[in-house]
Amino acid sequence: MIDRLINGFADIVKMAVSHEAGRPRVHNNDWPFEVIWGSDAHAIEGCDYHNDIYIQQGINEFTSILRAIEALKERSTGLEIGFRRGGSHLIFREYFKKFISVELNPRSLLMFVQNSVLDERSEFIIGYSTSTPVVNKVKEIVGGRLDFVFIDGDHSFEGVKSDFLTYWPLLSNDGVLAIHDVDCPHVPEVKDIYEFVQELRQLDFSMDVVHIDYCGVAIIKKDERNRDIKLPENRYLTAFDSLPKNVRICLYGASKFGSAIRRKLEKNRKDIEIKCFIDTFKEGFEDGLSIINVKQLDNHMYDSDMILITSIYSREIEKTLISKGISNYKIAMPFLTDPAYGC
Question: What residue ranges define each of the domains in the chain, with the CATH number in brackets?
């Protein structure tokens, strides 16, 4: 089936973008229909990254994922985080009764949907993959169970770890989860994913890593080797509603992000008392709120219930808190400050 899908990709694209009413095609130039892979698309004259359908992953990576899908005992539901230009969705959906793509960029997704004709197997969700509305919608569509998950969205450490911790529990026994861009620690844009995969290895997750023609893909099967591994607690805050009522909070990170989180909390959770900022380097005041240097933290924790990390250096801060024996903390996800996100 893999050869048929890959060799027939041009026909799959043509069928997806055809329309009896004559609506515009996704391809608006003279570039021919063919399989274009993320590893070599940049070298092809006439390839429009933003307006053409292509497959983001390298050919060997992608076919390795397809082989893992073909080996699944059950192929009912699948999820892709990161839609890009839709090529992978067109292939993945051929295997499942229902396949979902989650994409943050509404332009690329809406352009694809408006100019494509797909049946009920395809579902598209615009939003942050770990936000409460998106996760609830995914659960609703698949009935709380996924047979396949492909993570290729937010490439930050917090983003990929939050995706994994959110969707691994929804993966069925013997299901497969794949993560893209896992094996290029020297590439700044994807080194965080490499570091997260090393964390999974330290937890004794068994995985196959294919790194031949791009930045690598990790394929993890939820079998007897992996299904009973205890996951670290998911400390990523994705909705203010999930914070306890009447809690007293210190914000670790006296920054623009920290101030933005403070304003959001004051607007959306008036029952929460914000006691102070904590910072590794600063002390004094920020917008009238005291800043406690971390060296003095032990003297102030008696007056608060938890810490909310509001800094891009969350991993370093976590280590600091753990070294001080502090375990009641959460990490604010950056999208919480997005004005478009109702949280």
Answer: 2-221 (3.40.50.150), 236-337 (3.40.50.720)
